[in-house]
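Hypothesis: this fold can be encoded by more than one sequence.
Test: take the structure tokens below, design a sequence, compare later.
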């Protein structure tokens, strides 16, 4: 979401956030976190009531300054009503201070969450959860495309998501750029969510050392093996320099979430070592969230 900090700091007009997205992507936790920041939150508001609610909210009697509305998909009519109402509010009633936040997650993540919580998907009345997830993704694709911000919640647990919301939507402090750093193996494919991708396959590979093969880049013996070699050290310095510059540009642009993927052949040694080392960096207004996608797949 571009210039979110400026948007949050405006005192001459109310702040309106519309939070929507895929079922299971974290909308409830997101809304509760906004409530902690003194947003007036209404969850599951029917779309036809959107205009009426906003008009009532900003009357002198209520005079609300920060409003967050959680809206769910409940069928095809939802899509028609939603796009119509948003366009009418922005272009007919000239309410420009509305930001739409779309919470997204991969099918595998959503399926795991529904299985863990044993909750029923709202669209899974007469179909499997997998089919319901796919139907909802297709249904909400136009809304995702018109959103001001798309947040992939795959790598967040509930505490990390709440922390991110608090850091990002508080007008009293500078926002933090959360850098999701993924190690991966090219043999399993490049992570689809990547913003930046780095290839380490040209560096010495511990896999071919019989004494090191069984370890991963999380083990000190692998990190010591790699970072005592001149070419690894040289590449690390160049990578860090360029990456820091790139992330600073993302931050100044107003971004809040960036995914950096670092790959080697199998995603076990070199890329894991680099991600582990990078996650320990302390850079101003940035935090790192490491994830090793392919460790254990061999």
């Amino acid at each position: 979401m571009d210039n979110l900090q400026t948007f949050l700091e405006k005192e001459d007009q109310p702040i309106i956030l519309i939070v929507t997205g895929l079922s299971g992507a974290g909308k409830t936790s997101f809304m509760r976190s906004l409530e902690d920041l003194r947003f007036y939150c209404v969850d599951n508001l029917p779309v036809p009531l959107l205009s009426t609610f906003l008009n009532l909210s900003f009357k002198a009697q209520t005079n609300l300054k920060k409003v967050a509305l959680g809206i769910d998909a409940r069928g095809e009519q939802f899509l028609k009503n939603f796009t119509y109402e948003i366009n009418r509010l922005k272009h007919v009633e000239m309410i420009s201070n509305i930001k739409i936040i779309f919470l997204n997650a991969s099918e595998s993540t959503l399926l795991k969450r529904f299985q863990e919580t044993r909750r029923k998907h709202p669209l899974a009345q007469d179909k499997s959860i997998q089919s319901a997830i796919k139907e909802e993704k297709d249904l909400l694709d136009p809304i995702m495309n018109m959103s001001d911000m798309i947040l992939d919640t795959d790598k967040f647990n509930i505490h990390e998501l709440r922390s991110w919301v608090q850091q990002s939507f508080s007008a009293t402090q500078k926002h933090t750029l959360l850098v999701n750093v993924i190690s991966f193996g090219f043999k399993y494919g490049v992570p689809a969510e990547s913003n930046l991708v780095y290839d380490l396959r040209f560096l010495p590979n511990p896999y071919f050392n019989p004494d090191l093969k069984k370890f991963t880049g999380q083990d000190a013996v692998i990190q010591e093996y790699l970072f005592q070699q001149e070419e690894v050290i040289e590449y690390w310095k160049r990578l860090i320099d360029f990456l820091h510059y790139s992330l600073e540009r993302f931050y100044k642009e107003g971004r809040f979430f960036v995914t950096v993927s670092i790959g080697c052949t199998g995603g076990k040694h070199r890329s894991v070592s680099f991600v582990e080392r990078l996650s320990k960096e302390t850079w101003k207004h940035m935090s790192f969230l490491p994830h090793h996608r392919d460790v254990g797949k061999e």
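The radius of gyration is 22 Å. The chain is about 40% helix and 20% strand.
Hypothesis status: open.
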